[in-house]
Amino acid sequence: IVVGMGTVGIAAGARETLKAILAYIEDNKLPDIILRQTGNFGLTGQDPVVKVILPDQSEVTYAKVAPDVAKRIMQEHIGNGNVVLEYKISE
Q: Is the whole-model pTM more than 0.90?
C-alpha cells in the first residue's frame, strides 16, 4: 500500500489517511502488509491518493481517500479482494 504524502496530499489529509491504514493493520494484526509513503502522484485534485498493489493483481489507485474510506478499502479490497469502485481512478 502506497500513500501519496506530497505537500498537497498532506494538506488534503493524507497524514490522517496513513494513520488510519496503519491503525487498521495493527488492530487486525496484518504483518504481511507493507505500507509506504511517496511524494505526489501527480493526480491534481484527487488527494489523498492511495495505491494498492497485491500479488498477481493489477495495481489499483484510489482518490480522495479520507480515513473512513481507507478503512473501507482495507476491509473490502485488502481483506476480501473486492475493489472499492466508487473511489478507484484510472490513470
A: yes
